[in-house]
Specification:
This protein is of the alpha+beta class. It has 13 helices and 14 strands.
Length: 349
């Protein structure tokens, strides 16, 4: 009798995994029934299926979404990788609705997302390279500039760029970094620290009215490298104005113009660009340079905000030099994460 009671309880209630397995089995049985001519199954979950198709279209044609209204296109491109989180949400709804139509439609956004970002999920880092560079927006309100300087110097970078430097904090960073970097220069709110000699240092006009970009030649053992450090204007998301980025876009165009006239073969751009590689507003820069993270990183390399990184708006880009590895450094007292890369300096030509 005890055995019979146990069997009855299992048949009626069942365990969690068995019940879930039975639900999936019933779903596939219904799909089989639909193939045999039951049209009702295919009509179920049409709204979920349409959402899946719309999601795929948005990711596929993101570069054609206009910026005329609140810079909507740039806003979507800034957080484009996160649209992939909608796929499991829609998958759950498709299972709840027991809809084969929705399940099939979900293949579209899944394939589009993998095409856009699947390659970044693999580890592309190599062991080569002869120059290590790093960049960090140290945050004007950083409560621990000495600790931040110590942390970024520990990265082993040969060339270090810092952004959002205040006049009062510059002496602190200079003192903290002096033993590691014998050469440095600060222009406005950006600076570069180097283990190798710096020449040709000058500010770069990015149409702001004050200095937030600079250029210097680093004479490394492998050859000369033109290093640009930039902090493009911030962007804001406002209910009444959308994604306000007009000044950022104007400065990006000016920065791209300056880099296009750089005579050196090897060029490295370090800085907080307040935009991702997907953002068409940075085309003046991204069209002529490669992202070290995209070419030689491991993962998406999000850098902001430091407490919960959601986008990579801090960038290391190269022209001429070959990216070998790229990574994100541990959190400091800033609201940005520092990032670093190792590149191979091109010779000859």
């Amino acid at each position: 009798m005890a055995q019979q009671a146990y069997m009855t309880e299992t048949d009626n209630g069942g365990s969690g995994p068995e019940r879930r397995g039975n639900r999936l089995r019933r779903l596939f049985d219904r799909m089989a029934g639909a193939r045999r001519g039951d049209p009702r199954m295919w009509r179920r979950g049409l709204f979920v299926a349409m959402c899946a198709v719309l999601l795929a279209v948005v990711m596929l044609v993101h570069s054609h979404i206009p910026n005329t209204i609140g810079n909507l296109g740039s806003l979507i491109e800034t957080f484009l990788p996160w649209l992939g989180l909608l796929v499991p949400v829609l998958l759950l709804l498709a299972v709840v609705r027991r809809s084969p139509t929705a399940l099939i439609a979900l293949l579209l956004p899944s394939l589009v997302w993998l095409n856009l970002f699947g390659g970044q999920l693999s580890d592309k880092t190599a062991t080569g390279g002869d120059l290590t560079v790093a960049t960090h927006n140290v945050n004007a309100d950083n409560p621990d500039p000495v600790g931040t300087a110590r942390d970024v110097a520990a990265s082993g970078a040969d060339v270090l760029a810092l952004e959002e430097l205040t006049a009062s904090a510059v002496p602190t960073y200079e003192k903290a970094l002096a033993s590691t970097y014998p050469y440095h220069s600060v222009e406005g709110t950006v600076g570069v620290w180097s283990k190798y000699p710096l020449t040709g240092v000058r500010s770069v006009d990015i149409k702001l009215g004050w200095t937030r970009a600079m250029r210097a030649t680093v004479t490394a053992p492998a050859g000369q490298v033109g290093v640009y450090v930039a902090h493009l204007p911030s962007v804001r998301v406002k209910m009444e104005a959308g994604f306000t980025a007009r000044q950022r876009d104007k400065s990006a165009d000016a920065l791209g113009e300056a880099i296009s006239h750089e005579p050196l073969r090897n060029v490295v751009l370090l800085g907080d660009l307040n935009g991702t590689m997907n953002d068409r507003a940075l085309n003046a820069v991204t069209s002529q340079m490669r992202s070290t993270q995209g070419a030689a990183g491991n993962g998406l390399g999000f850098s902001w905000p430091a407490s919960f990184p959601m986008a990579r708006i801090d960038q290391i880009m190269v022209r001429g030099a070959k990216p070998e590895s790229s990574w994100t450094l541990p959190e400091t007292g800033s609201d940005h994460l520092p990032i670093a890369a190792r590149v191979k300096v091109a010779t000859g030509g």
